[in-house]
Amino acid sequence: MRANSCLADLQQAAASREDLKIEPFVLRGTPVWIAGLEPLIQRAKTRYELLGSLPEISCSFEELAARLFGEFVHSSELLGKLLQGKLAVLSGDGTRAFVLESEPAELRRTVDLPKEETIVGAPSAAFVEDLNTNVGLLRQTFVSADLQVEYISLRGSADKRIALVYLRSEAPPQLVNEIRGRLSAPSRQPVRSDQALISQLTGTRWQLISPLYNTELPEQVSEELLRGRVAILMDGQCTAAITPSSIRNFFAMFSDKHFPYPLMLAIRAVRIIGLLVALLLPGLYVALIAVNPETLKIELALSLAMSRLDVPYPAFIEIIIMLFIIEMVVEASLRLPKSIGPTITMVGGIILGQAVVQAQLVSNLVIIVLAATTIANFTLVGFNNALTIRFLKYSIVCLSAMYGVMGLFAGLIGFILYMSSIRWYGIPFMRLR
Amino acid sequence: MQRNASRLPTYLFIVGTHTGLIFFLYAHATLRTTAYAHWQPAIVYICIEALCLFLLLAGLARVPGKDFADLFIPLGKVVSLLLLAPLVAYFLLVSLMVMRSFAELVRIMFVANTPMWALLALLVLLFMFGAFMGGDSILRANVVFSALFLPVLLFALSSCFKNADFHYLYPLWNSSFDFLRKQEFYSSMFVVSPFLVIGMLPPLSPLRPRGVFLTMLPIWALCLIALHIPILVFGTPAARLLVFPFLATMDSVSLLWLVFDRVTLFYAVSIMAFVSVHASFLLWSIGRIVHKRFPKCPEKPVIAAAAVALFVWGLMIPGWDWLQNMLFWETWLRILAVFAIPAAVLWRGLILSRRRAAS
Amino acid sequence: MIRPRRLPACIALICALTVLPGCWDIKDINHRVLPIIMGISYSKDHKYKVSLQVPVPTARNIRILVVSAEAATLSKAISHLDMNIESNLDLTHMQLILFDRKVAEEGIQDEIAFAMRTQEIPMKALLAVTNEDMESFLRKTGNSVVQNGSSFMNFFNKNAGWDPQITLSALWQAFETIHSETKDIALPVIRAGTSTMLEFEGSALMSRDRMVGQIPPEQSLLVNIANNQIEDAVLEVTKSSSLLIVRNSTRHRGSIVDGRPVLHTRMQLSAIVKEKHDDKSEDEIASELTEQIRTRYELLYEKLLKAKSDPTGAGQHFRGLLPYEELTSWRERYYPRLILKCDVSTVIVNQGNISSN
Fold this sequence. Notes:
The complex is a heterotrimer of chains A (433), B (359) and C (357). Helix content of chain A is 50%, strand content 13%. By secondary structure, chain A is an alpha+beta fold. Chain A folds into 3 domains: 5-100, no CATH class; 131-245, no CATH class; 257-428, no CATH class. Chain B has a single domain (3-358), classed as Amino acid/polyamine transporter I. Chain B contains 14 helices and no strands. Chain C has 2 domains: 28-215, no CATH class; 217-357, GMP Synthetase, Chain A, domain 3, CATH 3.30.300.210. With 357 residues, chain C is an alpha/beta fold. In chain C, helix 4 crosses helix 7 (171-179).
């Protein structure tokens, strides 16, 4: 039974996997079987390389393995190795097998510009889906023996490969141990996404603010590594997840450092103001129009009253309706095909901007408030962070509708208190380093 | 991180707890003690606070890393209860007074039709939320609040000088010292009490007595300024009639170039940030002390129970006058908390350090 | 299936729904009515008559509405008005409180106390006195607002149309001086103008809370100079020239001599020559102005001392000199016996582009 086990197992596996090809071959006089997953391997090129790297003498199976740097494997591991894109060479009788690296098929994207993060005047090669390429990009960006790369092997077959990258001199050892331990723990769901990572790292899915900060840029990862953070790269994801995140990630990017220091501070100040505006402006509108109009100047109060004369809805409902519409527009524009995109944008702009005001469904100040809020929202660094703020402002709007400016600030105070209490692995979220 | 920078949250916290009181209740409390020369009762308050703070810090410095509960619990069940129960009761009373006064402020100054229970519910939930987050989170959050709201309040303070008439400082000397014989002086002594939170800080962050005293100097200067601004703007007789003199003074300033008109509202909610820092920390301290004394009681339910008690008690107070009466009735508790507790801390500190030196 | 440990959170969320109807203070700004001038006068049977000038926004522009109500107390009158107006009356944008002369003469302490107590009325609201009928004043000025579009607040705005002769007094200042032992204010006396919106008739002298006299605009100017309120330039006409006073600073010093208070006032004026009728030298022009200002100031003070009104804040300079118990009787015992020593000095900065006619 054991005699034909490797070949027999493989043929059994190939029965339901028609992309697994097993062929007989003669390699320098030795009959062998060559097996591989056809989509993952360039067969012709591989065969050419194989023949080219062997001397013109006949070799036995063991000699072949030695010359081709093959790794002998047991039949139970064979399928797993083939799934990783390796080529298997089985002996003529099918009892022994070794695997070797093949010429991989061109399935990887070339390194390109980032899709979501655009920056001015700074290096912007972005990560791709392949883990090896990403680690390679990091090594190229940060040329140092200090850079440690650990591959974490997870239990499930659906789990992706994960690499843990950190600087030995900067990252605290207990942090690295903590993260490694949590990632290696048994997971309830396959670890294939950020949500699963969050669930692994913090123990629950229900996190309002993520411990991970995603970035497409190796430069950004390098800067975070220098601050003692750990980067988690997952095979198939074109972002690196840096953990633990901090409030600094909301408004600080590495590309700011390409400007002089005072300018950098000014740019970061603009982002912080953008954060506050995005969070507070709709609530401020509701508070000032509906609950505390005494804070408005008399001329503004009268002109606002004039603009709201025939509007049927109270300010709170107005804002909520328009905010939902803007959310839908933003969400839809992420998914629009390039051919329809401009048309829908124009229609949306005209409908929202002109027609809804002329129909006196909402007052024109709401549109200004919304535009300012949306623009301010996207001054923030990181799409996840902008998303968090986008959804937090609704609770602040509700509080301002009930209590006015006091509710607005109570919401802000509560939010700051919550953010101050967040700790990832004992490291607080609310810190500037 | 440098050693000095890591103490900044602590110092800012001390500033924050005092700010909540200074901009809010200090002026009225001190103005009602006497007819003129108000700097005299103010200086007496400062001296009392300095003395008690000195006692407290001297005791805490000898036993680093221990707070009130750690110091008193080893004394035995009865003695620790005798010392800690008034402290906890006093913390609860201060939170109650601050919360209810702020709700009254919102009702009086901003003519809110919101019923008292809704206002109190918002405040209590905010304090409870902060207390659940923990003492170190409150310290951290206070740094952000100081960065956001202290400039606003300092701007408000400096803009009040536009309307000030410095002649109202005279007459300078009141030789009768009649404030010492009035009950208002003793019931207004609550303005001295924010320093007690320092007793709960040692486990959270290290304290240096000299640093704390240096932090108190600008706070005391701010107390004097906050007291005198209503006097300079309105004159003493009119300022004594106002219920919230400092906020009324801020209301009188007319700055035409500001974006908003009656910005007193924004000043008041800035004060709310510091008030919530103070009250949340007090609630958390109550939870911490009770938990340490009775380890079977977990902290969060204690904090929740204290918050519910605050809410119910706050609703039961009919109005502003009642609040002033309540201040008078709790005078003995205040004297106990302000004088006896720091003295006890110093005594314990001396004993423990002597014991440690002997061993 | 919701796990048991999620139950408290669910209950909390459901309880949060119960506060949804809790919008007690929501009243949109277009459902509020924001009066900007409030006039207080007496009705025929000596009850309070409150008149409000309200700008009502319509589709195209703003329409001015004047409403009045009579009642025994101010708050009753205002609640009458609130009842009758279709929107909610919101006093938080009040800009001017106008007193009828009779009300000012009887004392405005209760009215000021009402305004301070309610806290809706902003403390920065200005005060004025008028001799005209309140409703016709409000209507006439209202018509000007609609026609010319000029907000009447420009009249009192130091950055806009304010003139140095016009006294500015806010609600909080009235409150301060009603209770102050040593200070008074002067309220502007206004009336609806024939060609302009408002005309300034002079200042009403207040002693504590009662109006005790009226001074013409030239003397109001001196009160403002004495209080260092002037930031703009003021034109003064002397016998031989017209001078523009560009800078002035006044310093007072008090002393007690033989039980009588003595006030040393030192005014320093800097002026530019605008028009010259004869060829006098700079020194002569300067001394003309000095003499004119000093004589007028001394005349003003005679009037002030007789009326026992202290709008220049003379008493403030004696606060350190008299014991507190004496200060409370400043207006009755010491102020009428005040001796004024006024010292004016003028400097001619330049004579303009040409040195002589």
